[in-house]
Amino acid sequence: MKNFILIGVGGYIAPRHLKAIKETGNCLLAAYDKNDSVGIMDSYFPKASFFTEYELFDRHNNYVKSKGGKIDFLSVCSPNYLHDAHTRYGLRMGTDVICEKPVVLSPWNIDGLEEIERETGHKAYTIFQLRLHPSVVALKHEVEQGPADKVYDVDLSYITPRGYWYYASWKGNLQKSGGVATNIGVHFYDMLQWIFGPVQKSVVHVSSHDRVAGYLEMQQARVRYFLSINAEHLPQGVTSSFRSITVDGKEFEFSNGFTDLHTRSYEEILAGRGFRISEAKECIRTVYEIRNAEPVGLVGDYHPMAKFPLTKHPFGW
What we know:
The chain is of the alpha/beta class and 317 residues long. A 7-stranded mixed β-sheet has the order 3-2-1-4-5-6-13, sandwiched between helices. A 6-stranded mixed β-sheet has the order 8-9-10-7-11-12, covered by helices on one side. The protein has helices at 14-23, 54-66, 83-93, 107-120, 134-145, 165-168, 174-177, 179-196, 261-270, 281-292; strands at residues 3-7, 27-32, 49-51, 73-76, 96-99, 124-126, 152-159, 199-208, 211-218, 221-228, 242-247, 250-251, 275-276. It contains 10 helices and 13 strands. Helix 1 packs across helix 9 and helix 5 packs across helix 8 (179-196). It has 2 domains: 3-127, Rossmann fold, CATH 3.40.50.720; 130-256 and 277-307, Dihydrodipicolinate Reductase, domain 2.
């Protein structure tokens, strides 16, 4: 049994990590979040220590270690812009780290974390749950078994509506979340690169507070993408999230099978087969370039949904 500590237990993604720690037969010793609405802990680890101040969390962890206690892993579920600092904290404290995606916001931050890995001898992993999805694995196998020079035409459409709270939170802050492409799309870009090879060309057609649309040329794919958090972009009759990937005009079905992918990710990490942060470099570079690109408008090969009229920021920014 491994001992875990967790940063960001009050966040949206934390319950999946709590569930994964529990279902893999491990123990949560302590958790930290500046917010105290963390009753979810009762469902998994009611006896775990909890702190709303980072300094007290750190003191507790050092006390545990000073008394001969062992802390094996730190799980990082904090806001995106803090992932780098919290991963550094775990490595330097002498634990391995499991960090939610995106592991960092800028590609050079991975270089710094890899240096700390070498200094400390500990490892940092990230969560790329789509790489473990059976349908995604099958598609990768199909591409690998096909002609090496074949180039596929791929359309990615992902609309996951968010209310006005989103813009008031850190997620609506480009410097803290990385924007729409990073916050809701980084795992899709990783999945596509994992299957079709690295990005060779990137064009951004539209980029605003609630959407991003563009074109990627990969080693074996031409990808048009549209990501949005605007409910007005949902197809008629769809009331919640809409997720679609077509490959050469054929719908790639992967709607089911998402429930336990965080637990599967933990199982792979605990078995020594997890995805190291070095594997995140390509997708982090891709979203960084998308975030900093100048949109070219509706020219060239753009996603059909890119034609939706732009809307004002709900706060008038």
